[in-house]
């Protein structure tokens, strides 16, 4: 065996040609992804510098006798610069994680959402895209616990995302305040080992199209940090000129849930709304997500009128 021959997980077992080719392909794909993410980080940095320069020019104009109303213009430029810098920070963090990832070791691929929650200073989080009726279109989560925390809100009908979208502002609660504000949801978060939750609406111009929720074992992030990251997601990461609405493929389109609701509606002889309620109830009873229940309905023939064992 030559010194250049690859090994599996340090076990010194030579790989066959097919596995070697797959590893090469995975590494090339990773390298391409890293380059793309770094390009997006650089673009965000360029936008941040342009906004900061515009703010400085406007400030100088005001100092030289320009109209006071321009101070508000300068503030908007500074806010834009902070938004672009946050986008750059998240992309740079993600690029480093991807660069360090080695597919050949069969490690899980790093998630962009992990970079989002790191920028907020939280333990976990989820981005939810909504339609005009506040129905979920897509969800991306940083980890399984965050996915469960987000799904709890959809199942129970109360929580930070709904309130953030309703009020158009950052909402947060921690400790006993979680249960006081959202009784069922707060108890559910406590059962997951989480003691804080917060959310900020995501905007496209004046229109809300979703929300970012974050969760923590101790306390929520600062509202200013959450607003900065939320603005970066809306203006740059998701819907910017080079935005990615599916967050590098992490966003889970809720098609399987809707398919399962349709199948259950026919099988149980009930309305689609009632079928969706049954899916939510089963997920709550089993302590899992609605997507897991939907997958079992579609692919394993689960019947919702049969009690879980």
Describe the model.
It contains 11 helices and 6 strands. It has helices spanning 17-63, 70-100, 112-120, 144-156, 160-167, 176-181, 183-191, 223-238, 255-268, 272-286, 290-300, and strands spanning 124-130, 136-141, 171-174, 196-204, 207-216, 252-253. It has a 6-stranded antiparallel β-sheet, sandwiched between helices.
User: Spans with pLDDT under 50 lasting ≥5 residues?
Assistant: 1-25
Instruction: Give the N-to-C terminal Cα separation.
Output: 53 Å
DSSP strand tally: 6
- Give the topology string: H per helix, E per strand: HHHEEHHEHHEEHEHHH
* Cα gyration radius (Å): 23 Å
- Helix segment count? 11
Share of helix, binned: 55-70%
Q: Tell me, what's the shape?
A: globular
The amount of beta strand, in percent, is 5-15%
Mind summarizing the main beta sheet? Answer: 6 strands, antiparallel
How are strands sequenced across the largest beta sheet? 3-4-5-1-2-6
Secondary structure class reads alpha+beta
Overall pLDDT level: 84
């Amino acid at each position: 065996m030559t010194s250049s021959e690859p090994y599996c997980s340090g076990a010194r077992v030579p790989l066959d040609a097919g596995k070697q080719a797959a590893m090469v392909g995975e590494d090339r794909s990773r390298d391409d992804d890293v380059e793309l993410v770094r390009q997006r980080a650089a673009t965000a940095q360029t936008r941040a510098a342009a906004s900061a320069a515009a703010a400085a020019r406007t400030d100088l104009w005001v100092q030289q006798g320009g109209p006071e109303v321009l101070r508000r213009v300068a503030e908007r430029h500074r806010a834009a610069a902070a938004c672009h810098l946050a986008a750059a920070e998240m992309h740079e963090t993600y690029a480093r994680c991807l660069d360090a990832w080695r597919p050949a070791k069969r490690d899980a691929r790093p998630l962009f959402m992990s970079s989002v929650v790191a920028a907020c200073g939280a333990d976990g989080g989820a981005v939810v895209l909504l339609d005009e009726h506040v129905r979920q279109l897509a969800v991306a989560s940083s980890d399984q616990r965050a996915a469960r925390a987000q799904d709890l809100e959809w199942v129970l009908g109360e929580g930070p995302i709904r309130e953030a979208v309703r009020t158009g502002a950052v909402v947060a609660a921690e400790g006993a305040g979680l249960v006081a504000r959202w009784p069922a949801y707060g108890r559910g978060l406590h059962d997951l080992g989480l003691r804080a939750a917060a959310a900020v609406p995501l905007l496209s111009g004046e229109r809300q199209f979703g929300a970012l929720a974050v969760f923590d074992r101790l306390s929520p992030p600062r509202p200013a940090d959450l607003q900065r990251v939320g603005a970066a997601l809306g203006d740059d990461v998701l819907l910017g000129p080079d935005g990615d609405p599916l967050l590098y493929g992490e966003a889970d389109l809720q098609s399987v849930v809707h398919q399962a609701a349709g199948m259950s509606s026919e099988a149980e002889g009930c309305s689609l709304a009632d079928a969706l309620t049954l899916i939510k109830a089963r997920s709550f009873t089993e302590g899992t997500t609605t997507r897991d229940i939907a997958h079992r309905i579609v692919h394993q023939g689960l019947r919702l009128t049969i009690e879980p064992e």
